[in-house]
Design brief:
globular; 316 residues; binds 6-hydroxymethylpterin-diphosphate; 12 helices
Length: 316
């Protein structure tokens, strides 16, 4: 594992099991943590010091909090505000550096219910401010500017846009105005096994950076994400992990979210809740290949794996 890669640096309902977009077809066309949280990266008010977080010798861990009925691996588990808050507390105790809160399942295909901004806000309202009050930086996972603005007004400090500023014309302007870090993720309406996925990811992210630049978003506020499982075949998701280092040429931090995703079950058949080993393997490879932030449901195990890998690397 390259030291330099480090140095710069989800009682479940029955599964809606995927996150890898099947190729377009006629039918498819439509452990307890050993680490306390990072005092270095969070101010008392839960503000984010991204450079401090990225300067540590292991990637930051973003814990996933889905306040949804239909998320692919934990839909319904945290829809009750008390359960959501308990999960946030638990992830923080387990070492999460950032809590990523989403109120709409972002699966790009079948099973997820499109929701309105009002639906999202109704889910977020009793939860997000309470999570902010826990003092760890909060990220808002939404593709709707109105939802992102609402969350930023209530203390969220990072925007996570799974359409890389390319779905809603108002997102880039909002991010520029608020001057907050934004995760810009690669996405596609459908998977195409015939394409060069790394070229597609790079072209998409370059377009996102152009949009960001035109809107006046400071480059140092941007985090890139290959969008594991989104608009990709399982094989393409694995290619994106294997070739992640190519994205370092953008000179920006990289976030990877491989947690529980479907490509794992194509190697070893498994339900989403049984993909912890595969998630950790994928995240360790991602870290090795330059990921600076890992988005994970299983925080304790992820933190432990990343830290042990870094400690071993340190012996080289
Ligand atoms: N993956 C999911 C959601 N948001 N954001 C980023 N930046 N990167 C990801 O890989 C990513 C993401 C899908 O995971 P999950 O939130 O558990 O599922 P769902 O969208 O069904 O709620």
């Amino acid at each position: 594992m390259e030291q330099s890669a480090y140095a710069i640096a989800l009682h479940f309902q029955r599964p809606l099991p995927d996150l890898d977009t099947p190729p377009r077809t006629a039918q498819s066309d439509r452990m307890i943590a050993t680490a306390s949280r990072s005092a270095a990266a969070a101010t008392p008010a839960g503000r984010l010091d991204l450079p401090a977080l990225l300067a540590r010798p292991w990637p930051a861990v973003m814990g996933v909090l889905n306040i949804t009925p239909d998320s692919f691996s934990d839909g319904g588990a945290f829809i009750a505000p008390e359960s959501a808050l308990a999960q946030a507390r638990r992830m923080i105790a387990e070492g999460a550096d950032i809590i990523d809160i989403g109120a709409e399942s972002t699966r790009p295909y079948g099973g997820s219910q499109p929701v309105t901004a009002e639906d999202e806000l109704r889910r977020l309202e009793p939860v997000l401010p309470e999570v902010v009050a826990l003092g760890v930086p909060v990220s808002i996972d939404s593709m709707k500017p109105a939802v992102v603005a609402w969350a930023l007004d209530r203390g969220a400090v990072i925007a996570n846009d799974v359409w890389g500023l390319q779905r809603d014309g108002g997102m880039a302007g909002l991010i520029a105005e608020r001057n907050v870090p934004v995760v810009v993720m690669h996405n596609r309406d459908g998977a195409d096994p015939a394409i060069d996925i790394m070229a597609d990811i790079a072209a998409f992210l370059a377009r996102s950076l152009d949009i960001a630049s035109s809107a006046g978003i400071a480059r140092e506020r941007i985090v890139l994400d290959p969008g594991i499982g989104f608009g990709k075949t399982p094989e393409q998701s694995m290619t994106a992990l294997a070739h992640l280092a190519e994205l370092k040429s953008f000179g920006l931090p990289i976030l990877v979210g491989a947690s529980r995703k479907r490509f794992i079950s194509t190697v070893t058949p498994s339900e989403p809740q049984q993909r912890l080993g595969g998630s950790i393997a994928a995240h360790l490879i991602a870290a090795q290949n330059g990921a600076n932030i890992i988005r994970a449901h299983d925080v304790a195990e992820t933190v432990q794996a990343l830290r042990v890998a870094a400690a071993i690397e340190d012996r080289k």
